[in-house]
Amino acid sequence: MSDEINYLDFEITIQKAGKNEYIVRAESGDGEAETRFTNPFNEDKRALIDATLTKVARVLFVERASMLKISGRGWPSAGPTIINWSRMSPAAGRKYQ
Q1: Starting from the edge strand earliest in sequence, which strands make up the sheet with 31-38, in order?
Q2: Where along the chain do its domains lie?
Q3: Which of the 8 DSSP states describes residue 89?
Q4: What pTM did the predictor assign?
Q5: Residues forming beta bridges with residue 28, ordered by sequence position
Q6: Residue 22 · residue 15 · CB < 8 Å
Q7: Which 3-state string (H, E, C) describes 14-67?
Q8: pLDDT score recorded for residue 77
Q9: For the chain (length 97 residues), average pLDDT per consecutive 10?
């Protein structure tokens, strides 16, 4: 018999334990494990991450809004336009497995 694990069912919970400290618990049918860790990002890094995520969200919102305003027709023409674009994409005609 092999020592390799074929399937492992477990549940992970993360709880805040302090300003920058967290408790991670993993539970399975055979037992549980627990560890503590601190947030590895200082305030400057968190601010940079937040700013980057905000910028990406704004860019995606603007791109999506501009797709819906094609030729000034708005929502009614968005569906067919998106379908037409998907047919012209490099992935058109490929089957996903």
Answers
A1: 10-16, 21-28, 31-38
A2: 11-40, 43-88
A3: S
A4: 0.39
A5: 10, 31
A6: yes
A7: EEECCCCEEEEEEEECCEEEEEEEECCCCHHHHHHHHHHHHHHHHHHHHHHHHH
A8: 61
A9: 72 89 89 88 86 87 69 60 66 52
